Amino acid sequence: MSALPLLDYQRYGRQMILDGIGFPGQVKLRKASVAVVGAGGLGCPALQYLCAAGIGRIGIIDHDRVELSNLQRQILHTEETIGLHKAESAARALKSMNSDVLLDVQTVAVVADNARELLAPYDILLDCTDNVPTRYLLSDTAVALGKPLVSGAAQKFEGQLSVFNYGANGPCYRCLYPTPPPRETVGSCAELGIFGVVTGTIGNLQALETIKIILGLHDETPALLIFSALGTPPFRSIKLRSKKESCLACGKSPRIPSSTDYVQFCGGPAPDWVSLGQSSGKANQRAKVEELRQAIESGVELSIIDVRPPTEFGICQLPGSRNIPLKALLEDPKKCIDSGTEPVYVVCRLGNDSQIAAKALRSQIEGEITVKDVIGGLQAWSKEIDPSFPIY
């Protein structure tokens, strides 16, 4: 009796004839189990190629739901699956591609209380998330469970890839980053932007590294692969040091308590920029979008300053507004105010940078000029005043 179903010889024949894979390698893939945490920009391509390669069991763990803004890079999701959990949407796509693979769908967030239980059944773990607290949690969990962690990251036009806790002296994430970066320096794809092909590149490479580990083709050399979509050459590899003996997670004296609050360790929860931009303030300092609309329609002289970056200003803008990026405004606020007494309204995307800009302008004002920032920014304008105004 064959160790592989008859149709597997046809499905996987093109990779089975490769030296280093063969029949034994395909059996290894079929018997392997992999957990992919995050079914987004990185997770989708990783899942697609792991499933196509014939990994026997794949865990898909993601508590988030599909949104329209995901479709630019999260290739397993479609317009029809908007609103579904990403794990369920991804599983639907994978089942239509390879119905023989066992898929474990988990629509929960990985947190300290459930990480070990969720991830223990799998041979290899993939970090396809986009936040620092979860990176530390997954790395610590991989160390505790004695499993390799294939970690990817992507932002703007750049991506990174590493395999942690693999081999005799492979470092963990904490070995490289004993302390997290300051919370204010960490941005998200929504704030900074992301080129979809970058997540596809890194996600595919995560699948590649995983398959190499399963097949025994990985040389176990610790390295950090850096990818720049606009770089020449686009790839460069940095050799990493072995694990640190002093590392709190994988060193000689591990002391990471299971009750660790990873969010607080990384500086607290990520700011809710939408809510912060909509918060009310002093009546003479913040204006609702309705007030701005009335001011525009009244025909009175006024100045609208848009402090978004030029690229974003080029996407959409209010009629009559002028673009002074926040950085330029802060360098010399006084130069940004026209002579006169007309009111000044400051806008941005969500209503956060405009608060900073308006405060700087008020500090330089001499006379009767009123400076207000617009609550909720251009997103609020679109939702409350003009539904045809683009939201991005």
TrEMBL record:
Q: Please list the cofactors this protein needs.
A: Zn(2+)
Keywords associated with the record: ATP-binding, Cytoplasm, Metal-binding, Multifunctional enzyme, Nucleotide-binding, Nucleotidyltransferase, Transferase, tRNA processing, Ubl conjugation pathway, Zinc
Q: Which domain of life is it from?
A: Eukaryota
Q: Where do the catalytic residues lie?
A: C189, C348
The GO cellular component terms are: cytosol
* Residues the entry annotates as binding ATP: G41, D62, S69, N70, L71, Q72, R73, K86, D130, N131
Cite the Rhodanese domain residue spans from the record: 298-390
Quote the subcellular location field of this record.
Answer: Cytoplasm, Cytosol
Task: Name the positions where Zn(2+) binds.
Answer: C172, C175, C247, C250
For this UniProt entry, the molecular function terms from Gene Ontology, in alphabetical order, are: adenylyltransferase activity; ATP binding; metal ion binding; thiosulfate-cyanide sulfurtransferase activity; URM1 activating enzyme activity
Q: Describe cofactor binding as the record notes it.
A: Binds 1 zinc ion per subunit.
* GO biological-process terms attached to the record: protein urmylation; tRNA wobble position uridine thiolation
Please classify the protein's predominant subcellular localization into one broad category. Answer: cytoplasm
Q: Mind telling me which SMART domains this protein's record contains? A: RHOD
Q: Pathway it acts in?
A: tRNA modification; 5-methoxycarbonylmethyl-2-thiouridine-tRNA biosynthesis
Transmembrane stretches, by residue range? Answer: none
- What family name appears in the similarity comment? In the N-terminal section; belongs to the HesA/MoeB/ThiF family. UBA4 subfamily.
Q: Which PANTHER family match?
A: ADENYLYLTRANSFERASE AND SULFURTRANSFERASE MOCS3, UBIQUITIN-ACTIVATING ENZYME E1
Protein's name in the database: Needs CLA4 to survive protein 3
User: What are the leading ranks of the lineage?
Assistant: Eukaryota, Fungi, Dikarya, Basidiomycota, Agaricomycotina
